[in-house]
Amino acid sequence: ADSAAQAVKRGGGNGFAFFEAHMQDGVRDQLELARDLRAALEDGGAGQLSLHYQPKVAGDTQRVLGVEALLRWQHPKRGAIGPATFIPVAERFGIIIALGDWVIDEACRQVAEWRDQGLRLRVAINLSVQQLRQPEALLQRLQHALQRNGMDASQLSLEITESVAMEDAGATERTLQRLGALGVSLSIDDFGTGYSSLSYLRRLPVSQLKIDRSFIQDLETSADARAIVKAVIELAHALGLEVVAEGVETTGQAAELRAKRCDKLQGYLFARPMPAAELVHWARRSQAPRGCETAP
Ligand code: C2E
Ligand code: MG
Ligand code: MG
Ligand code: MG
């Protein structure tokens, strides 16, 4: 895979064709994706990359409190490819830093544009483990993006999955401390799927836990899932953290979460991830005073 990655770095050509002949389909597929992704990035996204935004709404009032940026890739030949497919490719072939930088710049640019349109929204960005392993570059990139867009650091939050946060605990803790000092807020994503130690969690400067979708999905059918969700919410509140439930799809799940005092809800029940322009309309509709929603 190393020589394959080298071939991609050289940008294809004869070297690439040589390796291609020796490769299995899956690997060749990944190499092609890596090459195409690199080309799109070198062209500033090339109109292929975009961010979609999914609202996080208040548990009690359903007002939108912020959005999560989710990366989308419209491949010129293959059509839409999901992040679950191309993020691992980007990580494997050394493209994730450039891709993550693109996301940081684009999300901050978008927040500034919304602000200029009179819409104040906080945005959350998902971080890859490799971005955390290069804290200098990450901090600099974030600082520049905030400055360039006249953004306050408090408008930005960073989502880190629980498994990433628990890996290499010492280094991660130091990096998160520095990110926290910058003023951005930190959120533990997919919580409940990893194995965090509570004493470690307590030391991290995080302000939010996001309960993994798998528990939310089972809320109505599994007593275990209900017990876990209840325990996570109580634990988070006891530690002074805010809790978000991800992947809320039904009114039954939402009711259960509200009864358990979950602070924020996110999921298809409220809104799917959507392009920035659509989000503006969605936010205006959902923020409209009651009684106006049904006006002609
Ligand atoms: P995540 O951060 O846990 O994001 C939640 C995923 O669940 C998103 O999938 C979202 O579209 C989906 N989702 C939201 N509500 C619902 C729901 O009610 N039901 C169901 N079934 N799904 C829901 P998506 O956009 O495909 O992203 C998948 C993962 O890819 C993300 O998981 C995140 O880990 C990663 N990812 C996305 N964008 C980026 C990025 O810019 N950088 C990095 N490093 N990773 C990203
Ligand atoms: Mg996330
Ligand atoms: Mg998540
Ligand atoms: Mg997830």
UniProtKB/TrEMBL annotation:
It comes from the Bacteria. Coiled coil: none annotated. Residues 30-287 form the EAL domain. This is EAL domain-containing protein.
